[in-house]
Amino acid sequence: MNKVYEIKNVLNQYEIKDVHQKLLEENWRIDTPYDPVSIYHPTFKVCFDNMILNPYWFGYFTALVSAINSSLRKEKNFDLGFYKISSIILNAQQKNDKFQFHDHRDCRHTMVGFLTPEWDQSWGGSLQVQDKEIKFSPGNFVLFSGNDLHDAMPVKVNLPFWRISVGIFIN
Length: 171
What we know:
By secondary structure, the protein is of the alpha+beta class. It has one domain (about 5-170): q2cbj1_9rhob like domain (Jelly Rolls), CATH 2.60.120.620. It has 2 helices and 11 strands. β3 (about 40-50) and β4 form a beta hairpin. The longest helix has 22 residues, at about 55-75.
């Protein structure tokens, strides 16, 4: 798979506000989400290296992946096939947070979901996958190959809230 699939409106406005609020009540850590050379920022690990750390959110995001897979079959003629979720990690970003291009070669697919309830495109914070820019749009998800380099682009303004995204890593 070398294609980037955008799945729009996975969560509606009501759902995204509810999820965002509940996520903010969790125990976030200042951590590096993937490896020791990454830059530290707020993270919330739901599942990491096949170990479920939060059963509630693991069930929630597993159900979302199933619904997204159904949408992919109907709308994009693509199916994940037999899959297993190996990690689910949420990241929070503010202005001037630094990220770096990386891949997840140990995963067949990477899925990123945009979980901030409101967003203005002038604020930046888009997702760059290889040479494709995907605008941050609340409730949308993106699926791409684990081999693809990707990164969250910088947020350009001071935000009254965190820009939250979820990374779901699929084998």
